[in-house]
Amino acid sequence: MIGSNHFLRPPGARTEEEFLSRCLQCGQCAQVCIFDCIQMRRGFNFFLAGTPEINPKVAPCYLCMRCSAICPSDALHDIDIYEVRMGVAELDRKKCLTWKEELLCRSCYERCPIKWKAMILERGEYPVITDECAGCGLCEHVCPASAIVVTPTRFQDRSNDPGKKLS
Amino acid sequence: MRKPTLKTCRRTFQIFIALAFIFIPVLNRSRYSFVYGNFLSFQAFGVPFADPLAVLQLTVKNWYFTLDTFIGALLPLILAFTLGTVFCSWICPYGLLPEWAQKVNRKFVARSPREGMSGRKGFPYKIVIFSLGFSVFFLFSTTPILNQLSTAAWYSRFFQYYFGQDVVSLCGLFLISLLCFECVLGKRFWCRYICPQSVLLVLVKLLNRKRLKVVFAKQDCICNSGYERCKMACTLGLNPKTEDNVLETECNNCGDCVVSCQKMGKALSFELPFAGIPFPHLKIQVSVLFKFLVVAVFSGILFFGIVRWIFHRKLKRMATRFSLRRELFSRVND
User: Fold this and answer.
1) In a 10 Å sphere around its CB, with 0-12 CB exposed, 13-18 middle and 19+ buried, how is residue B211 labelled?
2) Which of A89, B39, B89, B282 could anchor a disulfide with B252, C-beta 3.0 to 4.6 Å?
């Protein structure tokens, strides 16, 4: 995954600018992560090398919030999981097995850490992602049809960013 | 049993630290949760340590530091203030490896091992490189990029990558090539001329004139000028036999010269920090008091660490709430 820019920051991360100026690259968040989803970034870009990244395709974040509690330099805020905005998941209804009415899947709904807030089931069957989505990437990880893609917060237009006041 | 010399103690401690930073990622991988981090920022049993330069970069760019980073940077600086740059000679793994590289150099490469190196030259270069790097950071970067020049961080980060992520990182290659370079040159090039991390420690050390230092008593010196054990023992190539200790800016207080002089005339010895300052009420010297102070400070740190270990989550939450509120207020004022 070297060179891929499509990675998430750990939960509770500030905006990318603020995060980069505060992160000491000590890797404590990667070491405390019990799911081994936080990796220290590799590569030759020494502005980014050593900073934490999460690749939801490889290992998603389970929102245990240990990393944001341990961060010594406050690059990661220690906040509730309801306030986390790592990114926003988008569901492609043309690919989703349930929306295509091929089979009753619900993998994403079963795994979502903020069930019924970030993800609701329309008419009890069809998954819909709401504004409360934390962007942890669990749904992207488990989706069998890869219908869900999480866009990191830093790539979004900041004017309609729901997590603006927190991140 | 023979009492171990200072050099043996130092080497043992250095190897212990170097091994510890290999095993920290292994411990973390096995989910032991009492020690985290690398040489940039580190915590053990709730006591934080941080690289002062990293914290300085953090503070300069954000005008803000956290309790963890503040205390973490303060501890090495206090150590430097009282004991000099013992960090370089006792703790830093990149102090240990070049010393071995220098041994290799003296055995296999160098033609005349006694060839003295001129001292007191390194620090001005270091200052120049430090200020250059810091101005580059200040003008062009918000990321603390001087962290990438920390060889100690390379060392610990290599094992973080290797045991934490099963990846062989390139900083290991950098480290090995730098060590080969040191083997050929044999002058501890990085420590003397470049290492930007040590500059702050040296500057803080210079603030305190009564710190731990090596003193030279000329009347006890019995060796002739041709064969000077102390000069050869110094890994930094300094000459300890100067009366006013002008070379002290670079001296790491490693004590190798003191050990080598034990067999000769005992002309070199350590002077305890704050020596000669009387403490009026107790009628003892501060240097005697210092020993008690060390015990007190260490137990204080331990107590603080345990308390912080227990209430860590709560403290961090409070700090986060505070900073969030401050940011919201500043946005309202805009």
Assistant:
1) buried
2) B89
